[in-house]
Design goal:
This protein has 208 residues and is an alpha/beta fold. Helices cover 28% and strands 31% of the residues. Helix 2 runs parallel beside helix 3 and helix 3 crosses helix 4.
Length: 208
Amino acid sequence: MPSNRTPDGKKKIAVTQRTLSFYGSPHDALDRKWSEFFLEAGLLPIPLPNNAVLAEEIIWGAGIDGFLLTGGETPVEYDGTNKDRDLVDYMCIDVARNQGLPLIGVCRGMECLLVRSGVTLTLMNQAHIGPGHLVRFSDGRQFVKNSYHTYGIVGRSCEPFEVVATAEDGSVEAVAQGTLLGIMWHPERYTPFHEDDIQLFRRWYGVG
């Protein structure tokens, strides 16, 4: 995929959006905090519409360097209603896999990574909606992270993904496979942002 770099050399990351309705009209929407987060991480976000044909044209025409699947909503297979968004997310996953491009899936984005790979999700308990909880990484680091998801994985394999972080109840908080990474917390919902999240994004997308 051609990379049409910005004047300052920032990597361009295609970012998926959720759908919100205003006055009966659907709107593609992106939390403004993501723009602030990307600015601190030294990345340039390219928002994608929830139209798979147009989104794919943007991906190839803009010379995208990576992907971010944002949170909000659930996949259609698990009581979600936004089939158009699912199609865009799954297309991004396929392109990332085929082209070897870095992709991070946040919350719903991680769910989509798992579903696209044939992994069955589990309905979580209320402890994973709202309050923060301790997340332990396979390299020994641990942080308190927020939690807003209703589906996930508890106590079983995520193949073909490797589990790289878990919560205290054994639920999976992060997975990785090649250039694909899924995390269950929302790094954009902190003020100020967590430095470990900033560094995670910089490292995964190859900044600096």
